[in-house]
């Protein structure tokens, strides 16, 4: 009888651990945040969604984005804004520096997928000029 009870408890414990890990993976860093999550976050003191909209509008104007590109750029800008918001919450200088470097690489890779070579070259040049998106 004791063995049956211990076996049942072991099975229940293993199942609970498995469900907990699955839940953590679902809610992890790659999970898409909801609009409610984003409404509470800011980048440079601006709520994320207006920030993303402004970034996308500026890129549309400067790079002559197509409608399809605008949708893709909005998604990339949202991901970048979320990462920037996360960086703004950091306190460790080395961690901030590393996160900014990783964000620059991430941004470049994502925009390269969406923009034409000419648009990407113009965007890259703007990133390195004082008149860029910074």
Which helices and strands, and how do they pair?
Layout: H1 2-26, H2 35-39, E1 42-43, E2 46-47, H3 48-63, H4 67-89, H5 93-114, H6 117-127
Antiparallel strand pairs: 1-2
Helix pairs in contact: 3-4, 4-5
Can you walk through the features of this model?
The chain has 134 residues and is mainly α. The chain contains six helices and two strands. It folds into two domains: 1-31; 33-127. The protein is 76% helix and 3% strand. The protein has a two-stranded antiparallel ribbon. A hairpin with a 2-residue loop joins strand 1 and strand 2 (46-47). Helix 3 (48-63) crosses helix 4 and helix 4 packs antiparallel against helix 5 (93-114). The longest helix has 25 residues, at 2-26. The radius of gyration is 21 Å and the shape is globular.
- Helix/sheet category: mainly alpha
Number of domains: 2
Give the low-confidence spans: 4-10, 12-30
Mind describing the biggest β-sheet?
2 strands, antiparallel
How many runs of DSSP E, i.e. beta strands? Answer: 2
The whole-angstrom Rg is 21 Å
Oligomeric status of the shown chains? Answer: single chain
Distance between the termini: 69 Å
Q: Shape, please? A: globular
| Average pLDDT taken over every residue | 78
Q: Please list the strands of the largest sheet in the order they lie side by side.
A: 1-2
């Amino acid at each position: 009888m004791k063995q049956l009870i211990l076996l049942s408890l072991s099975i229940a414990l293993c199942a609970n651990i498995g469900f907990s890990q699955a839940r953590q993976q679902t809610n992890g860093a790659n999970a898409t945040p909801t609009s409610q999550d984003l409404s509470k976050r800011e980048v440079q003191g601006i709520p994320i969604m207006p920030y993303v909209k402004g970034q996308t509008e500026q890129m549309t104007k400067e790079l002559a984005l197509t409608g399809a590109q605008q949708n893709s750029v909005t998604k990339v800008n949202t991901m970048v804004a979320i990462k920037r918001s996360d960086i703004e919450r950091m306190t460790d200088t080395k961690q901030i520096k590393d996160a900014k470097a990783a964000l620059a690489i991430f941004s470049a890779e994502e925009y390269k997928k969406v923009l034409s070579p000419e648009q990407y070259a113009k965007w890259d040049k703007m990133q390195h000029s004082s008149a860029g998106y910074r």
